[in-house]
UniProtKB/TrEMBL annotation:
Molecular function via GO: ferrochelatase activity; metal ion binding
One GO-annotated biological process of the protein: heme biosynthetic process
Keyword hit for Protein transport: no
Role according to the record: Catalyzes the ferrous insertion into protoporphyrin IX.
Residues binding Fe(2+): 193, 274
Similarity field: Belongs to the ferrochelatase family.
HAMAP family: Ferrochelatase
Keyword Methyltransferase: no
CDD domains (alphabetical): Ferrochelatase_C (cd00419), Ferrochelatase_N (cd03411)
Catalytic activity: heme b + 2 H(+) = protoporphyrin IX + Fe(2+); Fe-coproporphyrin III + 2 H(+) = coproporphyrin III + Fe(2+)
Name of this protein: Ferrochelatase
EC number: 4.98.1.1
Length: 319
């Protein structure tokens, strides 16, 4: 009888291999070529992407990536590898990391697990709130990998964990720690990555999942809508995205007497460009220039033990 061997695949969006124009361009091309992310007609999108967006954006992002790059490499990669290592210790089963875009990709990660005899594959996309632009990309990637296999393992796919009690408790603890260390702010901003409003109109339940996390978090903290606010960051392009926009909100707060803010981005399992550079550098500058006096970014859960314990709780029932 074949003995079950479980293995866990953690998946995140991706990162360039280096803070260089070439590496960033290669990463962006793969990312922005995915129809789950940009669903414009190919005949229109491809010339714009290759002739305008990639040359300009990859050059501009060199400084941004350089400003957050760690000695060990990309923050997202460093934290993700740490998560794999710590989770493996708690589970005593193979745990590997793959990315929707970049290297290691989903295929290479799955191949590693299969070669280790894994026949029960637990897939944990590190996106707490489901969206077609993130979690569904992982689903597509898994399907594509196994479409070429003669034999496939049992696959257990975790759609999201927006309301997971351990996740909410870990977020609440990180916020409470920041309040204790830096003082109570006038407002806690809970900022999620945005998506086009059109995706929601077409059926993506992402905003409901974000609101569920937000509501449970402020309840755990004993806060109300007077002291906490949900916003959306990282807008790309010109069509309407989920609102209110984080950066626009920050510009208006000082004039309303809100001079001290703390911001947490609970949709990111690992700190990355969108949190360390966009949020903690760009948005900090926006708020202070507008008249704010205190801006505190609360880090992602990264390799905190509470975060690893949450991952363990999520995958253990399937191991």
């Amino acid at each position: 009888m074949l003995k079950d061997q479980s293995g866990v695949l953690l998946v995140n969006t991706g990162t360039p291999e280096a803070p260089s124009k070439t590496a960033i361009k290669q990463y962006l091309k793969q990312f922005l070529s995915d129809p789950r992310v940009i669903d414009a007609p190919r005949w229109l999108w491809w010339p714009l992407l290759n002739l305008v967006i990639l040359p300009i954006r990859s050059r501009r992002l060199v400084k941004s990536y350089t400003s957050v790059w760690m000695n060990q490499g990309s923050p997202l990669m460093v934290y993700s590898q740490g998560q794999c290592c710590e989770l493996s210790k708690k589970l005593d089963v193979p745990v590997v990391f793959g990315m929707n875009y970049g290297s290691p990709n989903i295929k290479s990660a799955v191949d590693i697990l299969i070669k280790q005899g894994v026949n029960r594959l637990i897939v944990l996309p590190l996106f707490p709130q489901f969206s077609c632009a993130t979690v569904a990309v992982v689903w597509d990637g898994i399907h594509k990998v196994f479409s070429r296999y003669r034999s496939i393992p049992s696959v257990y796919f975790i759609r999201d964990y927006a309301q997971n009690p351990t996740y909410i408790a870990a977020l609440a603890d990180s916020v409470s720690y920041a309040f204790k260390k830096y003082g109570q702010p006038d407002l806690l901003i809970v900022s999620f990555h945005g998506i086009p409003q059109r995706f929601v109109n077409e059926g993506d339940d992402y905003p409901q999942r974000c609101y569920a996390t937000f509501q449970l978090l402020i309840e755990a903290l004993g806060m109300t809508l007077d002291t906490a606010m949900l916003t959306f960051q990282s807008r790309f392009g010109y069509e309407p995205w989920l609102m209110p926009y984080t950066q626009n909100t920050l510009k208006t707060l000082p004039d309303k007497g809100i001079k001290r803010v703390h911001i947490i981005s609970p949709g990111f399992a690992s700190d990355c460009l969108e949190t360390l550079e966009e949020m903690n550098i760009q948005n900090r500058e926006v708020f202070l220039r507008a008249g704010g006096t205190h801006f505190e970014y609360i880090p992602a859960l990264n390799v905190d033990e509470a975060h690893i314990n949450m991952m363990k709780d999520l995958v253990t029932p399937f191991c």
